[in-house]
Structures are given as structure tokens and as C-alpha cells.
Amino acid sequence: MSHRTIDLEVMRYRPEQDDEPWVQTYKVPCEEDWVVLDALIYVKDNLDGSLSYRWSCHMAVCGSCGMMINGEPALSCKTFIRDLPGDVIRVEPLTNFPIERDLVVVMDDFIEKLQRVKPYIIRDESKPISEGEHRQTPAQLKKFKQYTLCINCLCCYAACPQYALIPEFIGPAALTLAHRYNQDSRDQGWEEREDVVATNEGIWDCAFADACSIVCPKHVDPASAIQQMKISSTLSWYKNLIGLGGKKR
Amino acid sequence: MEVITTDIAIVGAGGAGLRAAIAVAEAAPDLKVALISKVYPMRSHTVAAEGGAAGVIKSEDSLENHFHDTVSGGDWLCDQDAVELFIEQAPKELIQLEHWGCPWSREADGRVAVRPFGGMKIERTWYAADKSGFHILHTLFQTSLQFPTIDRFDEYYCTDLLVEGGRCQGLTAMEMRTGRIKVFRAKAVIIAAGGAGWMFPFTTNGAVKTADGMAMAYRAGVPLKDMEFVQYHPTGLPGTGILLTEGCRGEGGILVNKDGYRYLQDYNLGPPDPWPRKKAMELGPRDRLSQAFWHEQQKGRTVSTKWGDVVHLDLRHLGEKKIDERLPLVRDLARSYVGADPVHELVPVRPVVHYMMGGIDTNIDAATAMPGLYAAGECACVSINGANRLGSNSLTELLVFGGRAGRHAAEYARKTTHLTESLADQLGEMAAQRVTELFHKEDQGESLSVLRGEMNKTLESGAGIYRTEDTLQETCKKLAELRARYRCLHLDDKSKVFNTQLVYTMELGSMLEAAHAMAHSALQRKESRGSHQRLDYTERDDDNFLKHSLAYYAAEEDPRIDYQDVVITRSQPAARVYGGAES
Predict the structure, then answer these.
(1) d(Cα B578, Cα B387) in Å, to the nearest integer?
(2) Whether residue B359 is found in the same domain as residue B385
(3) B283 lies in which domain range?
(4) Are the beta carbons of B139 and B100 closer than 8 angstroms?
(5) Of A54, A114, A126, the CB nearest to B99
(6) What is the ipTM of this complex?
(7) Rounded CA gap, B65 and B71, in Å?
């Protein structure tokens, strides 16, 4: 297989010894079908055992390896070196998050927000197992299926200009997940979630820049989810105003 | 040393660990759960399962069918009492997951849809397109967030069990963010830490699957059962080892050699038509299909590529619409990683290490022989999988036995007391010593990646799809050498924060122990059964080996191998028959 040697510029930060992040360059001989993650693994195994990054599945489903690649948030296991121009590739930790070490970011904020939107089925009464499954037609499934596909890679948070400005913003992935459950025919938790998401930190903070949807590696389209939430929230507000309010099902 | 007190500590937050945690939270809301994982839950390898989960739901299917498919699929090495319990619980667990919001694919009338898998008489695989494991994992993770009694410890690497008075009473774990080792004082521990595919050079498994849970139990004296049984999935992408689900063949995909010939008909799986046909040809069991590849390769009938020898998976006749609806991930993966669009092109595939049938020996309550210690999921061996796991039984297994582990551990925890804090601290210090020592080794010229590479190589060459006395002896010898050299490994990276070199080093230690157990178990099983095929003992030998192997840790020495009878309730061992003109 043909080789192409690249300069892999990696942002390093080891809190015990570095005052601030700096860039280290490694020369990496790449196979033609390598992804950026393969180059990082090469560095770790052959050049510098101290480099830290997260990864696991190498097939774009576990969501561990989101990072900035040439300035754009992306999965390093799905970004092919052959698709990047030039012989220099720059990798950095996802922006908008504190750096824990090297390419590893602190995810606490996202995890807290994920939990806050109540991403689980909420029902007044749960159905006994003996009664079997809920019926859900393919059309009903289609209403929310796309929004179930988020792998929590955080690329959308790194791309979001609002999150950069307002750290309290719940953000694309977590809001989309709230919408996913709201749209599920089995769920009755819209009102509970509305208290969390129809707020200034929630959907109303989104300026519809669409950056989240552009970078999403799984085509979840968080921007559209948030716009749909804004519409249903507004409609419900007007319905309440004219006395037609009731529980949304 | 910081001591964290909980009631039940769970190691691993993939499908089995999450299911166990929820089971405890529901059955015993008064008990505290510490859910400890070296990765965030959604990174766990359950996420990569594609095809689906088996459970009888169709009226034309029956528990009897599921039982028989599983037992014959496992070449009669399954414990039949465990299988009976498993198949009976399976549909309930899958319905439970539906109630928790899992987006199962549906029939037009709104019922869940099912697809056929290999070795299955009637279709019974519930699926969510070809991202079933992803959806199961996220559904469980998200569902778990509503329970206040579940405390998560994400990115904590568990190092050792705390055993006192013959009981498991907690564990030690390193917080990766700080490098600090902490003691978890628990009344019961559940290990749900997944498999060990990374022992091999070419695997579908994510990098997190490094035998940690198995090794932790093994070092503490709990035997590893049936470790010689390693499943090769017949359809991995060459180069990366990325899995292409059996669902491809369930939906009608075929396998052809370099001449475009459906070679499986030469291996007691034919005739090829009519197709698709259950329990025949491409819908035969995984062990048979992977072995057929090996024979094709010996005959020079595979296709030579830059990634090595392959055969072709042909999905073109399914058409774009069906592929996009049922197999969207497969299409995406094949296009991205080997540049072949299955709508228009043949996809190169080859067998790849996928699953460990063996693991921590448990009974049907997911309890090990050590009081207070439970295990479930791929790291455990209960055993419903026998000598060859039937595709789509493992996702269901982690639900059924993860749930049981949670409930039985809760019951046990109610009747027992905590270790004293001072004793916990003392035991923790001793366990932490092992990790601290890694930091202070002199450089003796051994490298982590070299050792791992040599381990990978010797397992593939000695304990791969076909094995012999000579290759296994060689592998056992090599592993003994690698275990000795491992003790000379030193770390360049002395930092505490997110030190992945340290974690990889501990993972390699785990893998070497599990590999050692595997190679010796394989060496001593002088027969061919399911996924364990010996060129020097080509027949199944029920007189001598209708038994589970149990590997006991013996420190510097080779493991002691013992045997345990297989539980047989209603299916006497018989020939495994696949193919035939009728299904």
C-alpha cells in the first residue's frame, strides 16, 4: 500500500507540567486508507506513549473520538487522511470544553445537561409487560427516529456559536434528545420537559446558526429539532392564552 | 485512601451493567448502586452491536424452537437449565426495553418487526434497523438517568476485587481524571465488563474490550469457564475488522468466492436454493461459516486483496430501498471503509474475532462461586452459548442475566454487612500497590505495543479458527514468556491525569491472563466442538468432553484446568444438522 507522510500537529496539554496548551508535531507515515485516528494510534504505539485521546469503536458509533481536525469538529475515526488537503493535519481537543489532558476534554457539563432534559419515557401509568408492546406504526416511528441517532460525540457543542458565548445553553444534542422523547408516541412527558427546555437556557437561546447540523457526523439535524420545539412551544403558549390549553399527547 | 461506601458496585456500564443497575434500583430503591466504568456508558461496546436481539414473539415461533436452535447452535455445550430460563425471559426483557423507549423497527400494523439470523428456525430477531446495540445501550443509559440511587463513576478503571473472609466485599478503582485510586466498599459486586476481542489482532471489538473483568475475577480465584471457545464472525470488513451484521444475510445477502460461487454449499450447508432459507447456507451458524472460509482459503478459492484474503458479500439483489431501510449502517460502513457501495458492488469480507463464549463461571442466578460476586454479559459464562453462540442471543443475554445479577445481588446485599472502613482501607492499599509498582519500574527495554503485538500474533496463529497440539503448545509457551516480560514493562508517562499508557498497561495485563487461560483450556480440549476446531482431533468427543472447562489462576504457574458437567434437561447431544432442502 502506498504511504504518505504527514506532519501531524497535535495540541498537547498535561496539566501537571504544562502551563498552557502547545503544539507538538509528529511525522507519521500513513497508509492510503487510514483515518486520522489511525495516525494518532501510530503516534501512541511508535513515537510517543504519553499522548492521550479517547477512542474505542473505530466505526463512528461510540462517539468517543470527536476532536477538532483542521479546525472543524469531527470524528477522527471517520475522517480519512486522503480527504484532507496538504501534508499537514492539525488535531486539537473540541473547542468550548475545558481540556482535561491533550485531546481529552471535560464532559461534565454535557452529562449534567443530558440528565436535566429527562431523556426517558415518562408516562402517567406504565404498561404491564404482560400486555406486550405498545403499537407504534412506522410513520409514528419516523417522527422521532432521526433524533435517536445522536452518538453524544459533542461535535455540535464545539460548533455552536451560542454555546461558545453562553455556557448555560443546554445545547444541540441534549435539546434534540428532549425532542426525541417528546415526539415518541409512547411518551407523555412533554410538559415536564417543557419546564426545562422552553427557557432562556433552552430552545430560546438557539440562534439557528445551523452549525450543529452541518458538523453532525450522524445527520441528526439538531437545528431542525430545536426549530420544531420552538414552534410547538409557541403554539402551546397561544393555546393556553386563548384557553385551549391542555396536555399535549 | 478515599473509601466510597455503596451497597452494590457494578463494574462496567454497557448493556449488562446498566440493566443490572436498573434492576437494583427498581427492586431495591433503598440500596445504593455505584456504576463504575472505564468509559462513559454510551461508549461501551454494546453500542456496536448491529443485527438485533432474539426473543420469541411471532405466533408461529415457540420457546421450544428457540431452545433447540440455541442448544444445537452451541454444539450441546450449553447448560440447558440456563437456556430454558433465558428463552422464557427473553421476550419479557425485549418488551421491557420497548416500554423504555427502544426504537425497534415495526411492522405496518405497529407491532415490532423481527428478522431471521443464522441457525434460527423461525425469525425472532428484534431489530432497530442495523443499529440495535446502539439503541439498546442508549435506551438503557437514558432510562438509568431517572434513578437517584444509581451513582455513576465514569472513567474509573477497576483494578482489583477486595476479598475478605472468602467474600467479595468491594473493589479498588482508579479515577482516570486524577490518577487517584479509591476503595469501593460494597456488600456485593457485579462484573459486567465485557469481552476480550483485543487479545487478537483482528477483531470487531472496540479498543475497550480487554478482558479486565474476566482477569479481575480470575486473579481473585474465580474460575474462567469455556475460555477456549472464541467466535469468529464470518463477515468483517478486511483491514479494520468492522462488523457487517448477520442481518445482511438475514435480509437475503449471499457469500461468494473468487469464482462467484456460493461455496457454503460445499460444507454441508446447501443446497443453495431456494433462497433465502432458514438454517441453511448463509443462514448457517457462525462457526461453520468461518470454518468454511478457512477451507476456501486453503483451496485457493478466496479473493486476494491488499488487505489479505477475502470472500464477497453480495447484497445487490436486495435493492437500494431495502438496503437503506434495513441496513443503512452497513451501507455507510462499506462505502466509507472499503469503498464498496453494497447497492452496486460486492463487499469484501472475512472472518474476524467477535465474541468470547467463555468467561467468569456463574450459575443461572449470575452468581459466581465467591459469595458476593456476580457476573453478567460477555465477561460471564452462564452458559447459554456453549461452544458457539447463536447470533442475536448476546444482546438478549445481557438483558436477562444483567437483570438477574442485579436482583440477586440486591437480595444478597440485604442479608449482609459491610467490611469495616479500616479493613477496606488496608485492603485497598495492598491492591493499589500493584498499580504503584508499575510507575517505578526501571526501563528494561520492553515496549507495551510490542508485547501486545506479540500476544495478538501468537493467539491468531495458535488459537485461531483451527488449532493443533503443536500450535497451541507454541502459543502457551509464548504466553508464558510474555507474562514474564510483562513484569519488566515500564512507563515513560509518569503523570497522573488521564494516563492512558497506564490504563493500556493494566489492560494488557488483563489480556495476558485471560489469553493464558484460553490457550491452556484449548490445549487440553482434545476434540472439535463448535468454534473450537482441532485439526488433530477432528470429531466431537462426548464421552470425554461433554464438559465445561474451568481454568483456575495459579500465579506464576500455568492455570489448573478442571471440568464440570454440562446440564442437560431435555435435549440429548445429537448431530448438528444445517442445510437440507427444507427449513
Answers:
(1) 16
(2) yes
(3) 235-351
(4) yes
(5) A126
(6) 0.97
(7) 10
